[in-house]
Amino acid sequence: xxxxxxxxxxxxxxxxxxxxxxxxxxxxxxxxxxxxxxxxxxxxxxxxxxxxxxxxxxxxxxxxxxxxxxxxxxxxxxxxxxxxxxxxxxxxxxxxxxxxxxxxxxxxxxxxxxxxxxxxxxxxxxxxxxxxxxxxxxxxxxxxxxxxxxxxxxxxxxxxxxxxxxxxxxxxxxxxxxxxxxxxxxxxxxxxxxxxxxxxxxxxxxxxxxxxxxxxxxxxxxxxxxxxxxxxxxxxxxxxxxxxxxxxxxxxxxxxxxxxxxxxxxxxxxxxxxxxxxxxxxxxxxxxxxxxxxxxxxxxxx
Length: 302
What we know:
By secondary structure, this protein is α/β, with parallel strands linked by helices. The protein has helices at 41-48, 123-126, 130-143, 159-170, 184-189, 216-219, 254-265, 282-291, and strands at 2-6, 16-19, 29-39, 58-59, 63-71, 88-92, 106-110, 114-116, 150-154, 174-178, 194-196, 205-210, 222-230, 244-247, 273-278, 297-301.
């Protein structure tokens, strides 16, 4: 099969498409024939060597939509739990330094990381949900907000920020989105009650979800005793004024992903695709991501 890898670190030019063996699922795993796989910022970090692995062949891709192709051997149920060959699924397949990821024709995933694919959207759109959707909902869980409380989402037009705006608004949280002025209409359409592209009064929110990684600047907008969640585990600002600070470290969770799928099918969550690329043009997709300013996700199609 074909897979996207790097054998050395650098810019988009180091991205290669290679021929390699089809992976075999072990007990508790399933193999997915990939229909679409999303390119994310974590893949830029892998390509640049941010997570290590010098001298190794490293694969890309955490997000996948496709069809269950094989189920690993196991005790009793065959190791695949509720899954059967032919099921249409989505999954997050995490891993910073590994020889193969979801940017391939086939990928192996833990059976409990899968969810049935949405029925209202195609595979290209479905593939944009797992990583960013799970990150957003797990970050919101850490904030423990109640209906009617106020939340500032920085980077509200981005992939994670956009999901966070939609999910928080659905929970009855009063959301203010912080993004570039040109993104005002988009952010409001996602459910933000208010929008800003400039400075925010300090101490004016019950919590902040800092998808733009503004750090202490974002923390200052939280009222005394509020909450802050960032996206660099261990890199969140120190607590001040009784503000609880933490950072999300996204985890695969098929049951939670299924809840997000249900919200997609209920038209609560919208899935944004900026552009698609054939798997053979993965380097072009990396180059486009490196340019910045992408609204929606870049998706590879084998």
